[in-house]
Amino acid sequence: MIHHVLLACPPGSEAASRAFYDGLLGMTEKPKPPVLAARGGCWFTGYGAELHLGVADDFRPARKAHVALLRPDLDDLAARLAAAGHPVDWGGEDELPGMRRFHTEDAHGNRLEFVTPL
After folding, report:
1. E strand or H helix at 15
2. Other C-beta atoms lying within 10 Å of the C-beta of residue 69
3. Does 106 have pLDDT greater than 90?
């Protein structure tokens, strides 16, 4: 079982991370231990996942590598993301048998996938 996944973010981007992961995705911010909070970034939990956003001084968004998150509200989530200006790229049902899915980008350009069983 995976405890968490770390995604990189640029320095000073915590507000954008909160707006995306808390505001759009509906995840809850988890307080970081003080020694780690000094490094910047933020942590989020929800829908059975824990994501850590860690500051990278030489940040480059992950365009291919990604995390796939299970979401029961796939259509509603896709609509919210599209309305907020994030890309929503649906995959064909034959690409990942038994799953509906789409890819998007977080506030920093990192690729994310959202899936739900058919």
Report:
1. helix 14-17
2. 19
3. yes
Q: Among 49, 81, 58, 66, which residue's Cα sits nearest to residue 113?
A: 66
CA distances from residue 11 to 5, 18, 39, 105 in whole angstroms, order as listed: 19, 14, 9, 18
Q: What is the pTM of this model?
A: 0.94
pLDDT above 90: percentage of residues in the chain: 91
Evaluated on CA atoms 106, 108, 35, 22, the torsion sign reads negative
Q: Indicate if the pLDDT at residue 93 is higher than 90.
A: no
Residues 7 and 37: their CA atoms lie apart, in Å, by 15
Say if residues 57 and 49 touch (Cβ distance below 8 Å). Answer: no
Write the burial class of residue 56 (CB in 10 Å: 0-12 exposed, 13-18 middle, 19+ buried): middle
Classified as helix, coil or strand, 50 is: strand
Residues 27/21, Cβ–Cβ less than 8 Å: yes
